[in-house]
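Appendix B, record 7
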Amino acid sequence: MSAVLHRLRFFVRQALGSMRQSPLVQLVAVSTIALAVAVLAACLMVLENVDRLAETWGAEVRLVVFLAPEASDADAERLRAQVVSLPEVERVTLRSREQALADFRAALGADAALVEGVGPDLLPASVEVGLRPGRRDEATLAALADRLRALPETAVVEDIAWGQDILERLRAFRDGLQLAGVVIAVLVALAVVFIVTNTVRLALFARRDEIEVMHLVGASRLFVRAPFYLEGALQGLLGAALAHAGLYAAWRLAVPTDDASVHFELGRLPLHFLRADAIAALALGTMAVSVIASHVAVGRSLRIPTPRG
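Structure tokens (predicted):
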């Protein structure tokens, strides 16, 4: 155990010493890695908040059946009785024309005077259908809308809406963001490989005499290469840490309070920074790519035969 710790300390000293020998190169490498990782982290943060928006809306999703002007209260009650018996339906609420107008005025707030004198006949009565938890997905909503259109009671129905246009836009935006995230992740990985590979090659060149001596005294391949692997891992870790620190500072400038939110058509969305597990995954991923890049650089630039005996 003591021998392992001694070797580990040696590897750490070698890696840190190599990084101290070329501070400008290391600064450029770590800064470039940080910039690349920050772009990817920002994309993931936007994607997280978009997913949270979809979840928030999904928890309150409802299907609205707008009744035709000639529909009577008895028609609305028959429709309500038929819809409430469906297995995926949790609740059904009748909303009269008067209630619709009152809600519209409340939504206008200080501008409610704009509809002063307007009668309730302007807005249609409706039946709001809330779904059970676990059934509030887009496929269930579309299927339920088709079933409602096929019911005999829906002869007095003018339209059925469940936010399909908004959902389609949200899904298209999320799919585009996911594709952009994949492309950015690939570009970040390539950038990290390029940066770490070249900095490790410079370190190999600077320590070529020391490496030759180690080879002559019978040092193993792993013993010679380990400090370079560790150097690559440190570059990746420092770059990821700098990226998240800079991104968090920019986040706090834009969102100074923890209860900040953005209002969309779908409702209020609280804004959140990246989750801790996402931050850890990005850091570990950057370190892993950096170690792989170090291995590639050492393998191409360093040829050490296996010691005999």
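Remarks on this record: Residues 7-57+167-301 form one domain. The radius of gyration is 31 Å.
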